[in-house]
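ugh ok fine here u go
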Amino acid sequence: MKFNKKHYRELLQYSQNLRNLDEMPDDMWDQLSKYSAILWKHLDWEMKEIYADLMAKFLNGEISEGILKIEFVRLQKSQEQVHKSLESNLIILSTTSNPNLDNIADLISDLQSVLEEFAVESTFSLKDLQQLVIEKKYAEVEKQKKFQNYELIKEIYSNLKTYLDD
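structure:
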C-alpha cells in the first residue's frame, strides 16, 4: 500500500466524527489500520537508537533485566502516547519508502517477546514449576533462562546496530 498523507488524514477525520469505531466500514478500517501501523513503524525507526542504548546498558551490566523491562515498557508507552497524539491532532509525518522499517519493527517486536518471556515462570506450567522446586533445580533452570535471554538480546542488539547509521 502506497502511503497517502491526504487519504490517511481523511480516514482519521472520518473516524473522529464517529460515535463508535464499529460504525466505520470494514474497508476504511483496514486502510486506517494499515496507515496507523506504518506510523508506528516510523516511530520505531525514529526510536531505534534509544532501544539500542537500552539493550547496550543491559548487555554491559549497567542495568538489570528488571530495569530493562521497565524501561522498555516506559518507551512503548511514550511511543503510544506520541502515536495517539499525532493521530488525534491529524498530524501526519512524512514517511519515506524505507525498506528497513519492517526490519526495525520486527526487532523491537522480538525484544518485546524476549522480555515477556524473561521469567522462568512464564515458560513452565505450575505443575512443572513445583517439580523444579521439589527437585531443587529451579535455580539452575533460572540461570539457564537468564543466559538464553541474554544471548537473544545480544543477537537482537547486534542486528539493530546494523541500522543505526541510517
